[in-house]
Amino acid sequence: MRMQFIPAFCIICLLMIYTSCEKVIKVNLNDSEKKYVIEGIVTNQPGTSMVLLSQTKDFDDDNEFAGISGAAIQITEQGGPTTLFTETATGVYKASLTGAPGKTYELSVSINGQVFRATSSMPQPVNLDSIFVSDDDTRRGKSRKLMNVQYNDPIATGNNYLFIQYVNGNKEEQIFIRNDELTNGNTSIVKLRYSNDDDDNNDIKPGDQVKIEMLSTDAAVYKYWYSLNRSATGGGANSATPANPVTNIQGGALGYFSAHTLQSKTMVVR
Known about the structure:
Layout: E1 36-43, E2 50-55, E3 72-77, E4 82-89, E5 92-94, E6 104-111, E7 114-121, E8 128-139, E9 142-152, E10 160-167, E11 170-179, E12 187-191, E13 209-217, H1 219-233, E14 254-268
Parallel strand pairs: 1-14
Antiparallel strand pairs: 1-2, 2-5, 3-4, 3-6, 4-5, 6-7, 8-9, 9-12, 10-11, 10-13, 13-14
């Protein structure tokens, strides 16, 4: 499973500055330092562990994934074995590694004399009880359908969740995040509402097949997605120029490494 995540990790915001004489100061957008981008996952489901390796691009480049070959990648279970990953396509590295809840994993990526490391602990799974559709009338009087997920948050604090939505086999770009800061120990119903509420392309229609994936992550991975979401949407009273999300990777690379549990449910919208 490739989570496609978010296609761009280094967002460059150009300010066109005019003097009193209206002289434009030109900024070279193609001189930014290239950084490696690592997207690594280990889950409790067979066949889903994967590491994607790419580099940031210049402002005018396309947004297609440009993988980097030739890396030596391994993941080590704390107190357990080390698994070597094999490149199966350009920049795509896979291995037959199935993680276990409660275990901590260390990722090591070596490329062109640089070494990047990250650790992530897989939480205990929280059961995805059900998914259902509800009508939503909050968008300027126009009714539309939204997916909802229901689960029982454990009494223990510190649970973090990601939800990924697929419609007719196509993964939606937005990833929905939630923690138990305000709902600890309670039954939770999360309405998967898009940041861009005015985009009709996000509407779910009768006959659509919808799959929802629920990921239980550690705090560092939640922080990554939270900061990425805030940067992309301009959230927060003190938001300014978009910034790179907070990574758990050491060594100067962008991206994240996530050991998480994974489960899903599918339904046809009526």
